[in-house]
Design a protein that fits this description.
The protein is α/β, with parallel strands linked by helices. It is built from twelve helices and eight strands. The radius of gyration is 17 Å and the shape is globular.
Length: 251
């Protein structure tokens, strides 16, 4: 059985003092959670979150990583830097990075390999735009994005990675894929992984849904057979809301 993983993507929100306040409030609310709990925060918040999360199972995540070990890359952070800061997970290839900052499938792959080599777990984002879904390209697109992102990884490395299916049309819009749509597409991603890395590897790989998952829809989504968790945006910025997503299996 795959252990569910609920990860909050704070995006460009929360100062260090605000981050400390949020995680401090979150700790008692997610104590004893049946899933892995991750908060992916701005780099300036790493120290505050790491300190506030002490004594809990909350893991620290970053929102990006550069693929070079060092060099003249102003404003970038290497995998070694993140690792030394105590980062466990890294969001890679989010649609906002692709849309606003020129991320490509190839650079996503380079970042994934750098992340894995440093001993961190990548949360690899894939997903289609509205017009691509309407044109019938969803399955081909998410399969391609996933396999390119994983290129060069071993079966064991793939099994430890996390894939986040995020339909671009559902990010920050309030729109949500139906439970069945999300489950079907995640099943397509798993089938693509199985085709290249084997069914056993695909069955171990955790695949999240990340498109406006919140306390109101989490139970239905998490009841689906293929969905192993969520990459949470807006709902992760409030301790009570995020804890309700984390506690999806509780009444």
């Amino acid at each position: 059985m795959r252990k569910p993983i609920i990860a909050g993507n704070w995006k460009m929100n929360k100062t260090p003092s605000e981050a400390k306040e949020l995680v401090t409030a979150l700790k008692p609310l997610v104590k004893g959670a049946s899933c892995d709990v991750v908060v992916c925060v701005p780099a300036v918040d790493f120290a505050a979150v790491k300190e506030a999360a002490k004594g809990s199972s909350i893991k620290l995540g970053a929102q990006n990583v550069h693929f070079k070990e060092s060099g003249a890359y102003t404003g970038e952070l290497s995998a070694k830097m993140l690792k030394e800061c105590g980062v466990d997970y890294v969001v890679i290839g989010h649609s906002e990075r692709r849309q606003y900052f020129g991320e490509t499938d190839e650079t996503v792959n380079l970042r994934v390999k750098a992340c894995v080599a440093a001993g961190m777990t990548p949360i690899i984002c894939v997903g289609e735009k509205k017009e691509q879904r309407e044109a019938g390209y969803t399955n081909a697109l998410v399969s391609y994005q996933t396999l390119i992102a994983l290129e060069g990884l071993t079966d064991k490395e793939v099994a430890k990675a996390v894939i986040a299916y995020e339909p671009v049309w559902a990010i920050g819009t309030g729109l949500v894929a139906t439970d069945e749509q999300a489950n079907e597409t995640i099943g397509v991603i798993r089938k693509a992984i199985a085709g290249k890395y084997g069914k056993a590897t695909a069955n171990k790989t955790r695949i999240q849904y990340g498109g406006s998952m919140n306390p109101k829809n989490v139970k239905g989504l998490m009841a689906q057979s293929e969905i192993d968790g969520g990459l949470i945006g807006g709902a992760s910025l409030k301790a009570e809301d995020f804890s309700k997503v984390v506690g999806f299996d509780k009444e």
